[in-house]
Amino acid sequence: MHPEFDVDLLRTFVAVVETGSFTKASTTVHRSQAAVSMQIKRLETMLGTTLFARNTRNLSLTRPGNTLLEYARRVLALHEEAWSAIVRPEVTGRVVLGAPDDYVSSLLSPVLRRFSNLYPHVEIEIVCAQSTSLAPMLADNKIDLAFVTRDRKLRGEFVRSEPMVWVGASLDTPVLAASPLPVGLYEPGCVARQHTLAALDGARIRYRAAFSSASLMGLVATVDAGLSVIALTRCSVPSRLAILGEAQGLPKIAPLEIVVARSAKSDRPTCDYLAAQMVQDLSLRPQAAMRGAAAA
After folding, report:
1. Which of 147, 107, 109 is nearest to 128 (CA)?
2. Where would I find the HTH lysR-type domain in this sequence (predicted)?
3. Are residues 187 and 201 located together in one domain of the fold?
4. 175 with 235, same domain?
5. Per-residue pLDDT tens digits for 205-260
6. Is the separation of the CB atoms in 139 and 255 below 8 Å?
């Protein structure tokens, strides 16, 4: 008789795949990194095969790992649907959620998948824009919820601190030798730009604002072209780019605080449930977030 799959083991396995590291997965499943490693080892022992190909920089699935991933997602989806069908009320409606595109791609995908499994009849419209643009939309009730960087206009419920890091095309990108240093910045008024400039000014580094964009992809394009360095939240850094730091002569940057903010007209169950899901799945204590992501 074959051993039965433990749903918790499958949930941890999927979390590691979706986050790309054991450390990030530990925050998703609310366990220590050591516990996550032990669960993956148990799963591999049970199956008699290796699920991840590990090296110093990357964590990738083996062929058996890819096969298991498809089934694990189906098992977890059925588990959530069964729970929802019996325990939770039938919820219908529509939620308009605003968030910057980098937060949507790097943080919200697992949340939206879980929420849709629990509440399959709720329609979610996603508005991708920078936090500075979402603040007036929230005030005008054009969006219900905003998953955004906290500032004076956007307070909301605290979810997590995200460390900011310097990013370049490589660890020895030639732009580091330029003086003044060419820097790509988010649009004026945003907190990420304020923190970036404060770090440069505090370290008395000569720089020039070579590029400015409200788009993550716009800034990344300048780095790909070898024209600037930029500062991003760690969760938003494309894997092809290098994370720079004090070894390259760049200063530490204050982290960003991410919150769930609500409009005046969001007082309804659909919004309540989605806001609670984001807080539950993504909450991190500030000190935990500052440790950053590490490979297995």
Report:
1. 147
2. 5-62
3. yes
4. yes
5. 999 999 999 889 999 999 999 999 999 999 999 999 999 999 999 999 999 999 99
6. no
